[in-house]
Amino acid sequence: MGHTAQFTAAEAAFVLREPVRAVKKSLDLGPVRPVLLRRQGGSVRAIEWRDLFYLYAVRALRDELTPKARGEFYEALQQTPIERRDEVSFGRFRVSVRDLVEEVEQRTSDLAALAEKVEFRADGEPLLKGAEVEVYRIAALLDGGASIEQVLEDYPSLSREHVATARAYADAYPKAGRPYPRTSVKRALQGAGLEALDDA
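^ that's the sequence the OP posted. Answer follows.
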């Protein structure tokens, strides 16, 4: 995923390892400048790579930058492509950024790698590659309190990596529309005392 990519709040949250709510608050407070992106019939706010880098860097440098210095740092990042520099100078500060750039590049590569682990059904529904199980179905079970072991028991064709992929993909690309049930049919039958039907 290159430096020309744009990132939604959920994608940025994946890279920053933060809740989406915290990232949306950062977008509201500035100085980053989100743009509107058309996606699946609607619009979502998105940020450029350099804005994503800024959000990551100010978290890493939290104790070293005053609010004024953060604004100056942001403006300095807008002047020259960050990938061409080892440091950023602004005011009286010089900040070494090479290691921070590499960390963000690695994390955005991890985000791109998720796409390689998912394939899409004709209706656009993402499936776990090689298992043909809906990504959001597994994520919903985890959200409903199912452990990884319980998911694997209910879906023996899945591996731990499949389950981790479902969780990460659903976080980075939240499902629009009607959610999947938070319990599997097998567990629902057990909860209703109908286990015998499962073996019938």
